[in-house]
Amino acid sequence: MKNFYKTISRRLILSILILISCVFLTGLSIAPEEVPVPQAEPSVSAPSPPPETPQDGAVIDHPLPEDPILTKGPWASEHFLMSEYACDCAGYCDGWPAEMDPELLGKVEELRCVFDQPIIITSGVRCERRNAEVGGIENSWHLSGHAADLYCPGVPCDEVAAAARALGLGVIEYPDRQFDHVEIWR
After folding, report:
1. How open is the CA angle 17-19-25, to the nearest 5 degrees?
2. How far is it, in rounded angstroms, from Cα 179 to Cα 168?
3. Nearest to 3 by CA among 126, 121, 155
4. 138/16: higher pLDDT
5. Any stretches that span the bilayer, and where are they (predicted)?
């Protein structure tokens, strides 16, 4: 549930950033042309070249800053950060009681590509205490980094399960909770 709220808050922050950027860029495009652009004082060590004046109708590129919440950290695969697989306990461990199985990471990436849309990891590796808290079995594959719980927004969990099985993953479906448990058997 903690990851669910974390995902929601990330999406809310991203939406707010996009909204603010749209308002800012819209304000730039309708600003009167007579408004002077303030010039910075030239540096003593090296004078800066004059700013380029865009032609009428040209758009000045203002890239958004990197989102430190969504894009910082090592990547597990093309679409997933390693942090998405970390134990979400309340500080009982350092987040990595075991390494994630590279084969699982690859299969989850393949699953994401099957649907060509985001897949949300709700649980990756777990420490024993967190596993007990969520009702995991004693020898859960989560404890050794060989399992993940996930869902694909807008896609029925039985379709996600069928695609995961086709990729060779072991699957336990939780239709009442709208997620699937996927695992690599070792």
Report:
1. 100
2. 18
3. 121
4. 138
5. 12-31
Q: Which amino acid is at 88?
A: D
Sorted by where each begins, the domain ranges of the chain are 76-183
Measure the CA–CA gap between 77 and 82, rounded to whole angstroms. 8
| For range 81-85, the mean pLDDT | 95
Straight-line distance from the first to the last Cα atom of the chain, in angstroms, rounded to the nearest whole number: 28
Q: Kindly state the tokens that stand for 33.
A: 């042309």
What architecture is domain 76-183?
2-Layer Sandwich (3.30)
Structure tokens at 131: 């596993």
The answer to whether 3 and 123 are in contact (CB under 8 A) is yes
Other CB atoms within 10 Å distance of the CB of residue 103: 13
The pLDDT of residue 56 is 52
